[in-house]
Amino acid sequence: MSLELIFLGTGTSAGVPMIGCDCEVCRSNDPRDCRTRPSVLVRYDGRSYLIDAAPELRQQAIAHDITRLDGVLFTHAHADHVLGIDDLRRFNAVMKGPLDIHAEQSVLDRLGVMFRYIFEAHKNINDSFVANLIAHPRMVGEPFDLSGGTWTPLRLMHGRLPIFGYRIDHGPTGTSGGGGAIAYCTDASSVPPETFPLLENLDVLVIDALRYRHHPTHMTVDQALAVIEQVKPRRAYLTHIAHDIRHADLEPKLPEHVYLSFDGLVVGCGE
Questions:
Q1: pLDDT higher than 80, residue 60
Q2: What is the pLDDT of residues 67-83, one digit of tens each?
Q3: What is the domain range of residue 60?
Q4: Which of 34, 65, 76, 189 could bridge to 163 as Cys pair (CB 3.0-4.6 Å)?
Q5: Going by DSSP bridges, is the β-strand pair 181-185/204-208 parallel, antiparallel, or unpaired?
């Protein structure tokens, strides 16, 4: 099976439509303008790996008939990327076992504080069912294997906060026969120089492009396009999109091989 990525959520921390907003995009009838909080599912060889657990994880899993996970990888511990963690207990129940999670040690530490009832279940006052998660600390730039796929944590900057992106290599990249390479770089305001070599020879680059105007912790559309031009992936997809961007307006203006992602979009590589 080729490497496949499913965009579960492509919106900002507030989602689109936003509460209390009656702008053109928030009132849009185009389903591509309806954006839940950011998360993707990566599939290969019958395995499924989730990157980030958005607050809408339950709805996203039901919408895409996701009934098993072989692991969850976190980019950082902001609410829009982790508040779905409680829904992981359903995968424990369906799969009858624990679930591996992978993140930087500082993120695992933060999750332990935010979800103490999960990570210190022995201190709970009752036996309520909580997610059964096995934490695996990961280091930036150090590849690790997940069922034959090579995952490499990438250093990105989210304002002043260092976070992870991920590069996934599966088989020979850029060829037929089930290979491919995808990099997922959400919530980035900049890419450090040492990360650019890890973004070479990509089939697919997914990158943050919040809006047209400057933002202190996210890339603009133009900044994302500049990174794409430097990295030169075979295809690129913009994500973490605010209500400033109407899908039908921006999509036709993008360069060749650059696309605007939307919830439910399925992208394959190495086919």
A1: yes
A2: 999 999 999 999 999 99
A3: 3-269
A4: 76
A5: parallel
